[in-house]
């Protein structure tokens, strides 16, 4: 009887330990889900799509630069990417605007280099440089 009880207790402890170790990844998943729910419950002006509009109204950004800015503000990368894509900015126009906003004008290969170093794709940078 004691051996049976001991075996049952050992089995129960082993199951408990296994559940605890599996719970750590589940805990991480639940934290990500909580963050997502938290973002969706914020005031509309604090949702990432509104931040995208706010930032693009004030200055030119590359897609990558804007996503990085939103992540810096605390939004998840997935939320930032979704908001930036949903907004639907014309990134070539943003690249042209970026060149126009520069204190010192640049052209040609130098413009392409500046734009790509600030997160614009080479295609966007070349199109913007040709338009200048």
What can be said about the biggest beta sheet?
A: none
Distance between the termini: 89 Å
Q: What are the segments in which pLDDT stays under 50 over at least 5 consecutive residues? A: 1-38
> Globular, elongated, flat, extended or rod-shaped: what is the shape?
elongated
Number of helices: 7
Q: How would you spell out the order of helices and strands? A: HHHHHHH
C-alpha Rg (nearest Å): 25 Å
The helix fraction, in percent, is over 70%
Overall residue-averaged pLDDT value: 78
Secondary structure: number of strands:
0
What structural class do the secondary elements suggest? Answer: mainly alpha
State which percent range the strand residues make up.
under 5%
């Amino acid at each position: 009887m004691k051996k049976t009880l001991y075996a049952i207790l050992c089995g129960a402890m082993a199951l408990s330990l296994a559940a605890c170790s599996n719970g750590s990844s589940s805990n991480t998943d639940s934290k990500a889900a909580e963050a997502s729910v938290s973002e969706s419950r914020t005031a509309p002006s604090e949702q990432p799509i509104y931040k995208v509009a706010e930032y693009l109204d004030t200055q030119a950004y590359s897609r990558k630069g804007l996503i990085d800015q939103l992540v810096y503000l605390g939004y998840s990368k997935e939320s930032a990417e979704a908001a930036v894509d949903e907004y639907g900015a014309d990134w070539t126009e943003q690249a042209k605007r970026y060149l126009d906003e520069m204190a010192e004008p640049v052209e040609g290969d130098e413009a392409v280099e500046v734009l790509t170093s600030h997160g614009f794709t080479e295609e966007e940078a070349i199109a913007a440089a040709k338009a200048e």
